[in-house]
Amino acid sequence: MTTRKSKYWRDRIKKEMDAKEADDISLEQSMKQLHDYHFRNIEKEIESFYQRYADKEKIDLSEARKRASELDISAYQKKAKELIAKAEKLRKEGRTVTKADFTHQENADMAIYNLAMKTNALELLRLNIDLEMQELANGEHKLTKKFLDEGYRKEVEFQAGLLGLSVASQANVKNLADAVINANFKGAKWSDNIWDRQDKLRSIISQSVQSAILKGKNGLTIARDIRREFDVSASYAKRLAITEHARVQMEVGRLSMAENGFAMFDILPEPKACDVCKDIAKHGPYHLDKWRIGENSPPFHPYCRCAVVGLDKKQEEKVNDKSEKFENITPNLMPLFSKFASKITDLQRKIVYSADLADTGYIRTPHAFDINNTLRNKGYNYLNVDDKLITDTLDSVISINSTPKNIKVYRFDDFELLGSINEQNNNIFDSGNFMDKLNQGGLSYTNDGYTSASYDVKKNVMGYRPIKTEIKVPKGSHVYLTDNEEESEIILPRGTKYDIINAKINEYEEIEITMEIRKE
Question: Which residue intervals define the domain ADP ribosyltransferase in the entry (predicted)?
Fold first, then answer.
C-alpha cells in the first residue's frame, strides 16, 4: 500500500466516522422516542387515577388505606349495589338523582366504599406502571440489539471494501457476529446492563409514584419527577448503545485486519477527540496481537468514536526500525508514564514507601539496601516477615505497571557488579581483558534483587560510584515509576536478566556498561 493509497484509506475512514455520527444521532432520537412513548402512557395512567379519585374525594390516601383496611369490603359492596339500583330506579322515574335522595348513613357508606376502591386503584396503577416499565426495558433491548446488529453488518461491508476481503474472509467475520456482539465489556454484557438498570428504574418509579400519592402530591408534580428519571434513563441507554456499537465495530475492524494479514494498527482520533484519545493515538502504532479495548484500541471512554487503520508492510518496517530506538523519559512524556507505569493503591503505598526515612519500606529509605543484600546473597526465604510483606507488595505493584515506550534508565555500581558478571559467565574475565570480554557479546547478568535506577542520570545519588550502567528497557517491560522525583527513581523487577551490549571507558575514566533487558 503506497503512501498515497494509505492516505486515501484514512480519508475513507474519516468519512465513515461522519456516517457513524449520523447513526448515533438517529439512535439517540429513537431512544428518546421510546422513553417518551412509555412516559406518556404512565402519565395517562396517573392522570386517569387522579380524575377518578383524587380530585373528587379530596381525602388523604394514607387515611383511605387505614379506613379501607378496616372495611368488610363485601358488605359495603352489597350496600353499594343496592344504592346504585335505587338510583337507577329514581332515574327511570324521570328524576335527577342527588345526595339528597339518600340518607346521611347511605351517603357515608358510599363514600367509604369509594375510598376502598381508590386504594385498590393505587395498586392497579402500580401494576400498570410496572407493566409499562417492563415494556420499556424490552423496547430498549430490541432497539439496542438492532443497532448493534446493523453496526456489525455495516462495518463488515465497510472493512470488506476498505481491505478487499475475500468472500471467505467476510464469511469468517460474519460467523463471529453473535460472539462479538454479546461479548463481555468491562465485566458485563450490554443486555445485562440494560436489565439491571431498568430493574432499578422500575423500582424507583414505583416507589416515587406511591410515595408521592400518599403524600398528597398532585399529578403534574409526580409526572415531572418521573420525567427526570426517564431523561436520565434515556441518556444512559444512549450512552450504552453507542459505546457498545463502537466496541462491536472496532472488533470487526480487528478481525478484518487479522484476516488481511496486518500485524500493526494506528488510531485515528475522531474530529472531536478528547486529549486522552489524542495522547494514546500519538504514541501508536500498536501491535494487533496486543489489542486491548479501552487501553490501546477504541472505545477509550463512553461515546468514543475514534477509529483504527492497519499499517502496511513498509509502514510496519519503519515502525520496527523506530521501535529499536531507546529514549530518555523527558518531562513531556511524564503524563503518559504516570498513566501506565505509576499505578499503586493507598495500602500498597503505605507498605513500600518509607515514612520519614524510617527503617521500613523500600522507597526513600536505606532499608532498600538491606532487602536487596538479602535477596542477592541469600534469597527471599531469608527475609524477615516484615520484609517479605514489603517484597511481595512491591512485586505486585511492579506487575501491574509497564513502560509504554522503549526507554533508557541509569544506575551506578561498585566493582562488585564486575565480580557478579564474571561469576555468572563462568569466570570469563580470568582468560583475558575484562573490557574485551564485555564487548565480545553473549554475556548476561541477572540481578536477584530489585534494580533501582534513575530515568534522569543527573539525579542519581550514587553518581560517585565507578561504574555507570545504561539499561535499555523495551516497551511493555514491567517497571514501577515511583514518586521519588528527587532521585527520578524507577524500579525494575527482582530477578531481571540483562544482555550485556557493550562497555567503554568514558572521558571521566568511568566504566560505562550498556545492558538491555532480555526478551524471554
Answer: 367-507
434: cell is: 575484562
Integer CA distances (angstroms), 314 to 6, 319, 320, 405, in order: 11, 9, 10, 21
Kindly report, as residue ranges, where domains of CATH 3.90.176.10 are found in the chain.
Answer: 331-343+401-517
Contact 328, 456 (CB under 8 A): yes
Q: Which residue has the cell 344504592?
A: 83
Q: What is the pLDDT of residues 333-356, one digit of tens each?
A: 999 999 999 999 999 999 999 776
- Parallel, antiparallel or unpaired: strands 444-447 and 451-454: unpaired
Bond preceding residue 285 cis, omega within 30 of 0? yes
Residue-level pLDDT at 467:
94
Asked if 468 and 510 count as a contact pair (C-beta separation under 8 A), the reply is yes
**Residue burial 131-140, b: 16+ Cβ < 10 Å; e: rest:** ebbeebbebb
Assess contact for 266 and 309: CB atoms under 8 A: yes
Are 213 and 226 in contact, with CB atoms under 8 Å apart? no
Cα 516 to Cα 503: distance, rounded to the nearest angstrom: 12
The SS3 of residue 409 is strand
Q: Is residue 42 exposed (0-12), middle (13-18) or buried (19+ Cβ within 10 Å)?
A: buried
Cell 379530596 maps to which residue? 58
CATH number, span 331-343+401-517: 3.90.176.10
Contact predicate 154/173, CB 8 Å: no
**Grid coordinates in use for 482?**
515511583
**pTM passes above 0.70:** no
Residue 446 near residue 498, CB atoms below 8 Å: yes
- Residue 465 near residue 473 (C-beta atoms within 8 A): no
Residue 64 or 419, more confident? 419
- How many other β-carbons are positioned within 10 Å of the β-carbon of residue 129? 21
The answer to whether 137 and 198 have CB atoms below 8 angstroms apart is yes
d(CA 452, CA 278): 32
Count of residues in the chain = 520
264 versus 389: which is more confidently predicted?
A: 389
* Cell numbers linked to 64: 383511605
List, in order, residues 6 or more apart from 467 with CB less than 8 Å away: 412, 413, 414, 415, 417, 418, 510, 511, 512, 513
pLDDT digits (tens, 9 = 90+) for 441-479: 789 999 999 999 999 999 999 989 999 999 999 999 999
The alpha carbon of 40 is separated from its chain's Cα centroid by a whole number of angstroms, namely: 34
Q: Is the pLDDT of residue 65 over 60?
A: no
Q: What is the dihedral of CA 291, 294, 297, 298, to 10 degrees?
A: 140
Task: Round to whole Å and give the CA distance between 86 and 101.
Answer: 9
Nearest to 26 by CA among 241, 217, 199, 316: 241
Q: What is the DSSP letter of 50?
A: I
Terminal C-alpha separation, the chain: 33
